[in-house]
Amino acid sequence: MQTNSAIFNAKPVLFAPVPIIKSVNTTDHNPSSSLASSPSSLLFPAHNQNWAHRKKATITSRSDKHRWSRTHLISPKNALKRFPCAPTSLLDGSKCISCFHYPHQKRVGGHRFRTGAFFDKSASHILKQNVDNSLAGKVKQLNVPRATLGPEEPHAASTTWPDGVLEKQGLDLYDPELERSEFERFLSSELPSHPKLHRGQLRNGLRYLILPNKVPPSRFEAHMEVHVGSIDEEEDEQGIAHMIEHVAFLGSKKREKLLGTGARSNAYTDFHHTVFHIHSPTRTKDSDDELLPVVLDALNEIAFHPKFLASRVEKERRAILSELQMMNTIEYRVDCQLLQYLHSENKLSKRFPIGLEEQIKKWDADKIRKFHERWYFPGNATLYVVGDIDNIPKTVQHIESVFGQTGVESETVVPPTPSTFGAMASLLVPKLTVGLAGSLAHDKSSGSVEQSKIFRRERHAVRPPVQHNWSLPGSNDALKPPQIFQHELLQNFSINMFCKIPVNKVQSFGDLRNVLMKRIFLSALHFRINTRYKSSNPPFTSVELDHSDSGREGCTVTTLTVTAEPKNWQSAIKVAVQEVRRLKKFGVTKGELTRYLDALLKDSEQLAAMIDNVSSVDNLDFIMESDALGHRVMDQRQGHESLVAVAGTITLEEVNAVGAKVLEFISDFGKPSAPLPAAIVACVPMKVHMDGLGETDFKITPTEITAAIEAGLKEPVEAEPELEVPKELITTKQLQELMLLRRPSFLSVGPDVNQTKVYDAETGIMQRRLSNGIPVNYKISKSEAKCGVMRLIVGGGRAAEDLEKKGAVIVGVRTLSEGGRVGSFSREQVELFCVNHLINCSLESTEEFICMEFRFTLRDNGMRAAFQLLHMVLEHSVWLDDAFDRARQLYLSYYRSIPKSLERSTAHKLMLAMLNGDERFVEPTPHSLQNLTLECVQDAVMSQFVCDNMEVSIVGDFSEDEIESCILDYLGTVEATKGLERAQSYRPITFRPPAADLQHQQVFLKDTDERACAYIAGPAPNRWGFTFEGQDLFEAIDDGIPTHEGANEQLKLEDQLMASQRSGEELQQGFRRHPLFFAITMGILAEVINSRLFTTVRDSLGLTYDVSFELNLFDRLNLGWYVISVTSTPGKVHKAVDACKNVLRGLHTNRITPRELDRAKRTLLMRHEAEIKSNAYWLGLLAHLQATSVPRKDITCIKDLTSFYETANIEDIYLAYEQLKIDENSLFSCIGVAGTQAGEGVSDLLQEEDSVEGLQTVIPLGRGSSTMTRPTT
């Protein structure tokens, strides 16, 4: 799915992270966690998508290390935002926070700014990227920071400005009267340091960082970073650091003791480090004992005192071999190819963390132990503690107590020089000049023969310890020829041009100023490429320029990535080079400079306002990455004030000069003065689909690639014209006329409620209904300062598609997104309107609904601007033929890419079998796409956009007067329309009757490497207790659902044990009659099953690395299903499937224990508590509060959520378990196997239509997934 939302990633690189509006489904790292069972996911129907559509096509890197990156199928849509899955992304960057969110790379480039007013996130996989959640507002002329040490911050580093710099507030730094010397002095002065960040070092060399942070409350993060990774492995040790990570982490008994406390833990390995992390409550639930010492003790055992038992080594060996096969997707292989050529001169090209299979099979415990002894010692590690910690000295004392004696006997570490630290010399070390690996002279002993023997136990001064060949101007003779990676599983053409330079450590105002200018320059490039070619049919599918610092690779890499249909590859390269040359030659315009600088400053100010809402893990990741790169760590407020200080000094000429330097390796390609590309790598298919010819060989040579680049250098270029940007989409006069015409007002909220305003004081939720029939829910929240979110939910979705118009809704939503026009405004104008107001808007279709979501700032009338855009979409959408053509081609391309993916083809076959071939739950076929017209897709979508079929929910930091004014002005003036019955009617959905030939199937994919996966699925009820058979389960509960034979006596005993945790018989009976009963009990059940799958199939039997159980519970449709997904090897996958079935069915004989139930409930409640302050979370809670299609949802579903989780008992969970169809006649499975000896071709599964031509699949290509291992659990 191509990215179309207007998002501006405006964060200056050194600011601490913005609080992420996360998926409500933040996952656990305990083996018991499951994506599908977040408390909030129970109430997020608009984000509940078909599992086959949500199946990710790639195995991502663990850049979000505090979350799982499993191969999930049934998680709510928000959970998928962290997966790259875009065969046709135009600018598919990560969410903006990735600039600060380690271990993502810090990205300066403008690809973070996604053009377009609408971001289509429909249930087909064209794209599932996260949208920017940082919204900004008007910039005030703030004072430059002058923070000093205060009495409550005895350990804080001074952030006082150098004397004489910016002595008076509001000084215009670029005043011609200002002495040049003073200006230069300002630019060279150091940026302030984070005032609350506390650094220290123990006698044994262990360094620690402590940051008090109140979000989430009563919880903390403790991460142990050991500075050893795959780059430190010798030739016969490839993968051994990852092996140690597994054995040390999962072999720790002290870590196991944390299970049941609400703590989550995991680990990962990268090129340059291994990280063990624990997210924990500050105190135990029952005894109120501090958990920090317990957590630190567990980390001490994991990192420095692991037990390398032979049994554990063998278990993890099996798991890693399974992980290796699971990761070995075509996307992973492309990543490896890119890294091999980019870093061909050093070990980064051949030391991938996952390791080599033949070596992993050989190591014994002694070999692993020796590597551990060489690298895992306190002097080579850094401890991070970030969270709700008030007493810093006490925290330091805990660290001293736990770690102080570790390694003292064998390590000789010279203590820090007291003069370096001032008054706190005995406690803290100064900020290192090169991140955590700065000047380490005092860490090393000299002159001792004995010390020379343990040289390997000294911490490297540079991480990773490799030498790079930088991209410097040179002769054409030194130019490396383009490299070509050709593979049968690739369908798309892509080319990457790399430029590699040293990291420019951002320590001074001058450094920050350069970053700002680059960001402005590259933002302009991305917007231009998209707007210039969007309305035509461009020869490329995407053009992306990325300028990133990489801590894991120890360099800054600029990458031009061009993707295209194979037949258009030469034209795509030529256009990309031409646009780069245009920007380099003429630079950005005055309007662009003003526009993007203003957006950057607005976003920066918004971050500063949200300083108290940043989660601990985001702050920690930001600090870890900043230190790895050597950047100065500032908090959000310091970052904004520093940005304001430098913003007024930049000029158009300097922006263009600085930006041009970034582009020279492309624009001046071949010239002696140009930097030499570090590598040029093309990834291409073996075959290509040609009109009338079918599949033919795709041929390409390095000489032809070079010629295409040179052709782009010869194309004529002209200066960019200025664009007129509308300040508003609806003028005051137009609004007045609409108000007179439509006369909006509020009516009674419902037929049984004689009130126009229903307010719930406990939740702060207000319910309203407009005279045109649109219901509105809103909540005023101060959690995210001056931010707001809004969601329009329209009933219908893909379920409403006619037999003759299969795919009409999903293609129609995509068409609307592709067009991007409203009223008389062009796509470019709408996009720039969104940029100026920092609005991002997403549009998606699911099986049940069409949804539009807006994120906006409350500054500069941002909320009114968002409401104007929504009004224009509802009233004046423009449907374009070329947008329809592109949308149809994208889905055709996506369908044809299914046989190239083992996971997708396996899921596709299972879905068709289970739902009796119903195309509404899979990608539309070429035949269906051929039958669609612009008129029919427009009708399919707009027939659902009727007032009595809509619901709008808003959450944000606004006043009642502000929000109600917007509601009346822009929603109330939408023309009243009716069509609820048509919009919500749909063909029955049925599960296939038992059929031996279709219930258990296999898929074979021919590939050079072996892999295997499997999916097991079956029917479940929907979220509100309705089944596909037409049964209302609440009626069955009233009649008394029979429990499993022989279970009553045990249930009585178990209930007695848990009686103290219940609120009495009356509350229990109320829970079983409550609409949330099945949603809550199914969520708890999923947690329990996931835990058992991990401990049995993964840990005990060693049949898989990755297994998960997930539920897809619909809201409007009277059905749901469960899916178990498992990856394995071809030799073990059938055993893994059998083991998964045994676990699923084994709950009858191996009954759920009170401990399992308590752990599952704590996990879910912990997630609820962590997300409760998020606007996005509340937006999901509000969904369907007044929807006629979800009649059982009411305010009690929000108010009673936590109490009902506490109330649920084991018998309740079994009432839910009985509703899962797990017998052999109801259960469906499909096994996918890839390898050189694979049998029947997977392409036979799909209906091929030669009469329809389409784009080739775009597979996101980068160098991320190969640089890090998956989380250990």
UniProtKB/TrEMBL annotation:
InterPro entries: Metalloenz_LuxS/M16, Pept_M16_N, Peptidase_M16, Peptidase_M16_C
UniProt keyword Hydrolase, yes or no: yes
Ranges where the Peptidase M16 C-terminal domain occurs: 363-600, 932-1164
Peptidase M16 N-terminal domain ranges (all copies): 219-331
Transmembrane segments: none
Any one Gene Ontology BP term: proteolysis
Coiled coil (residue ranges): none
Keyword Nucleotide-binding: no
GO molecular function, one term: metallopeptidase activity
Pfam families membership: Peptidase_M16, Peptidase_M16_C
Protein family (similarity comment): Belongs to the peptidase M16 family.
Protein name: Stromal processing peptidase, chloroplastic
Naturally occurring in which organism (per UniProt): Coffea arabica
